[in-house]
Design brief:
The complex is a heterodimer of chains A (287) and B (196). Chain A is an all-alpha fold. Chain A is 77% helix and 0% strand. Chain A has one domain. Chain B starts with a helix and ends with a strand. The chains are: A mainly alpha (287), B mainly beta (196).
Chain lengths: 287, 196
């Protein structure tokens, strides 16, 4: 089977998985928080399996934790769905859950001596706290009906894929990141057809997986701290819509500002990363 | 003085002669792999079209040779996965990444023999365990004796060569398997060892 057909089949299967869970939640009007998170989790699991093959459990290769993060993040996504009613359970459950998830993949880098104890603890705490902040700030976007949230997150996936491809120099992490964006993007046609909201759980699981991919790229591939910081700030961009100043504006303006930021800043970052990649060697290596 | 020089020359010649006769050595001899005169090269088919070649520049190890009883012979090899070199720094970075060697978590590729069996006068079959990316798989290779001599520093040296094929998917290196890059990787290890 050609690479194009293979990729199309992978994207199709992942989209079916995520769409099935989301529509089930929509139809049942029950367990929406859980099914919203499960949709992204199942879609990403399908993607990972098709791109990288069957992961081990527990993984020998630490980079396989990304797959297990997709499953282990479901309770956190579910907590996000019920957060308005159980605020402290959400805050502490998420913080401790994210911390545990970030310890798992990066312990081998401490054991192999690639990171010193101080650096390793710093990175892990940094990843956990920044992930917690990101999912806390972006979770409310999932409750917003319409195109904006899935489109912005899908675009983030595209920018992330470009930076991971040329900056981290990992085609598979780039592929996973781009297709994760596409999986969230399934919410766009659903929003057009049924005024659908992807749910807080979906946003939380997606953002957690983006952070997991970026942290993996920093730890195990060539992503720099600067590139990770830019991707992180871009991930916060969709949450600009929630700022009180923007809430008073029309929906078009609320959508246009983060969209323009993602397109302009994201495009510039991908362009700069590509230039740096091209400057590294006289001959272009196209993977 | 002249007599002493002649005696020393005679002694050196005898030593070289004895050293080059495999059958007269009774004890196992340990050789340290000389990384300058040894090579680990690999090739893999790209897009089902041409072969891409690469090498590892940093490795170390020992070879124990028992010519009387080859079963007592052994080899241990440790390769620095970060030293992969394909002549393109972008591709080398990609190979070090999780798509291939994941060299930050698994910086070493190792081979340790478990059994050596004589096949004929110049060939032995070496069985052992190859560990790459945290996965250990058995490997069997036919190793050919390529020569023996002395280097300019007067040290006894020995040479072997082997070529074998591995499937990278058996070591969880699955990137690009669907048409991009072949599963089979042919490895050639040409080694020169210096007697310890």
């Amino acid at each position: 089977m050609s690479v194009v057909l293979e990729s199309a089949l992978t994207a199709g299967l992942a989209s079916l998985a995520v769409g099935a869970f989301w529509l089930l939640g929509w139809q049942l009007r029950r367990a929406e928080a859980l099914l919203s998170a499960l949709g992204i989790s199942a879609g990403f699991a399908v993607l990972y399996w098709r791109v990288q093959g069957r992961p081990d459990f527990p993984p020998i290769d630490a980079t396989q934790w990304v797959f297990w993060h997709a499953l282990l993040a479901v309770p956190i996504g579910w907590l996000a769905g019920i957060a308005p009613a159980y605020r402290w359970v959400w805050v502490w459950g998420t913080l401790l859950g994210v911390l545990w998830l970030m310890v798992l993949p990066f312990r081998p880098l401490l054991e192999s001596g690639f990171w010193s104890l101080t650096a390793g603890v710093g990175y892990i705490l940094g990843f956990a706290l920044s992930t917690w902040l990101l999912i806390t700030l972006t979770a409310p976007l999932g409750a917003e009906r319409g195109l904006a949230t899935p489109v912005l997150i899908a675009l983030l996936g595209g920018v992330s894929a470009g930076v991971l491809f040329y900056g981290a120099k990992s085609a598979s992490l780039a592929q996973l990141s781009g297709t994760l964006g596409a999986v969230v993007g399934v919410g766009a046609p659903l929003a057009l057809l049924r005024n659908f909201a992807i749910g807080r759980g979906a946003v939380v699981v997606a953002m957690l997986l983006f952070m997991s991919l970026w942290a993996t790229a920093l730890g195990f591939a060539q992503l720099t701290l600067g590139q990770l910081a830019v991707l992180y700030l871009l991930a916060l961009t969709p949450a600009l819509r929630l700022l009180p100043a923007l809430q008073r504006q029309s929906p078009a303006v609320q959508f246009a500002l983060p969209l323009a930021t993602l397109l302009v800043v994201g495009g510039a970052v991908v362009g700069m990363t590509y230039s740096a990649y091209m400057a590294q060697s006289g001959n272009y290596y196209s993977y | 003085m002249l007599q002493r020089t002649r005696f020393m020359t005679y002694l050196s010649a005898v030593a070289v002669l004895v050293g080059s006769l495999p059958s007269v050595q009774a004890q196992p001899i340990t050789y340290r792999i000389d990384p300058v005169h040894s090579f680990i090269i690999f090739r893999v088919k790209h897009l089902n079209t041409g072969f891409a070649y690469g090498r590892f520049n940093t490795f170390s190890g020992t070879i124990v040779v028992d010519e009387q009883n080859p079963a007592n012979s052994s080899i241990e090899l440790e390769i620095d996965a970060n030293s992969v070199d394909t002549g393109n720094s972008q591709r080398d970075d990609h190979l070090r990444n999780p798509d291939f060697f994941n060299a930050r978590q698994f910086p070493k590729i190792t081979f340790k023999s478990t059994r050596v069996r004589k096949v004929n006068g110049t060939t032995v079959e070496v069985q052992g365990n190859l560990t790459m990316r945290g996965v250990t798989r058995p490997l069997t290779a036919r190793v050919t004796f390529t020569g023996k001599g002395r280097n300019p520093r007067g040290q006894e040296i020995i040479g072997f060569e082997t070529t074998f094929t591995i499937r990278r998917s058996e070591f969880n290196i699955n990137y690009g398997l669907n048409g991009g890059l072949a599963d089979e990787v042919r490895v050639t290890f040409a080694v020169e060892g210096i007697r310890q």
